[in-house]
Amino acid sequence: MQNQPSSMERINKFRDDRNWRQFHNEKDLAISISIEAAELLEIFQWKTPEEATQDFEHLKEEIADVLIYSYMLADNLGLDIDEIIKEKLEKNNMKYPVKESKDSKKKYNEL
């Protein structure tokens, strides 16, 4: 049984098949993440959460765009997505201990 390509491998193949690597520097990828995040926010603008999530396909596409550019930026910087998420969750665990933060929306410096 053959392993399926990872998300990063599929993203890079899509990019490389079109020779777009030349356009995907760190600055432009960071800008693209922000633009796509704004498009995600636009889905929710002036709507209730229930109204915004009715067009689920559009929502999925915008989340995917944010993630694709984020993956590409991490790859450009030689970062392992799983590792940086693990490290960040460990830091968040220290900032937001369960005992103080459970059922609270306070920021870590207010706990």
From TrEMBL:
Taxonomic superkingdom: Bacteria
Pfam family of the protein (one): MazG-like
SUPFAM superfamilies listed in its UniProt record: all-alpha NTP pyrophosphatases
TM spans (from-to): none
InterPro entries: dCTP_Pyrophosphatase, DCTPP
CDD domains for this protein: NTP-PPase_RS21-C6_like
Protein name: Nucleotide pyrophosphohydrolase
Source organism per UniProt: Enterococcus innesii
Source taxonomy: Bacteria, Bacillati, Bacillota, Bacilli, Lactobacillales
